[in-house]
Amino acid sequence: MLLYHDTRAPNPRRVRVFLAEKAVAYDTIEVSIAASAHLTAEFRKKNPIALLPVLELADGKVLRESMAICRYIEELHPEPNLFGADAWERAQVEMWNRHAELELLFPIAQVFRNTHAFWVGRIKQSAEFGTIMREHLGERLDWIERELGNRPFFAGDRFTIADITAMCALDFGKVSDIRIKAETHPNLAAWHQRVSGRPSSKA
């Protein structure tokens, strides 16, 4: 398997962490967003909308969405289970992974895209929208802080794909000065320390 990725982007990191948890071997090709490598005609043959990551199989088939890639790997390598072991747990994991995507990763990405100098001249930016997303994120962090007072991981008592998504989102937030503060969010900070201590977090 061949993973096209950018080492700094959160969605490729989600896949790398997932593969590390599964101990699955793969090769990589770096596609630098900063160098606009994702916009080349060659890469657009892999993904016409120029997004990362892309997983290419030995027979030339490609998957070009991070959760689709992870679900495919889960089917091939069901242990350790990261998407839920029964109907209820699968629903919980799905729910919390979606929360992590929509309430953490999306607003963090929009703060970055709309307020960071990296994107000046690359995309249309709206500083006002970036500010709205930062405020929205603050409310969501307060909510997740309360939730994590009831359990050690996002979807329950064990590490799942929901934790991978949340960790990658919040770590990516640092580039926009979005940080977990232990004095205001101790449960979230303790969770982050737990997940960051896993070897896969370095993937």
Explain what this protein looks like in three dimensions.
The chain has 7 helices and 4 strands, in the order βαβαββααααα. The protein is α+β, with helices and mostly antiparallel strands. It folds into 2 domains: 2-76, Glutaredoxin (3-Layer(aba) Sandwich), CATH 3.40.30; 87-202, Glutathione S-transferase Yfyf (Class Pi), Chain A, domain 2 (Up-down Bundle). Strands 2-1-3-4 form a 4-stranded mixed sheet. Strand 3 (54-56) and strand 4 (62-63) form a beta hairpin. The two termini are 16 Å apart. The mean pLDDT is 98.
Report on the biggest sheet.
Answer: 4 strands, mixed
Proportion of residues in extended strands: 5-15%
SS element count, helices: 7
Architecture of the largest domain, according to CATH?
Up-down Bundle
Stretches where pLDDT falls below 50 for ≥5 residues?
none
Overall mean pLDDT: 98
Shape label: globular
Query: Structural class from helices and strands?
Result: alpha+beta
Domain count: 2
Remind me, CATH topology of the largest domain?
Glutathione S-transferase Yfyf (Class Pi), Chain A, domain 2
Helical residue percent band: 40-55%
State the CATH class of the largest domain. Answer: Mainly Alpha
One letter per element, helices H and strands E, the order comes to: EHEHEEHHHHH
Strand order in the sheet with the most strands: 2-1-3-4
Number of strands: 4
Euclidean distance between termini CA atoms: 16 Å
Q: What's the alpha carbon Rg, rounded to whole Å? A: 17 Å
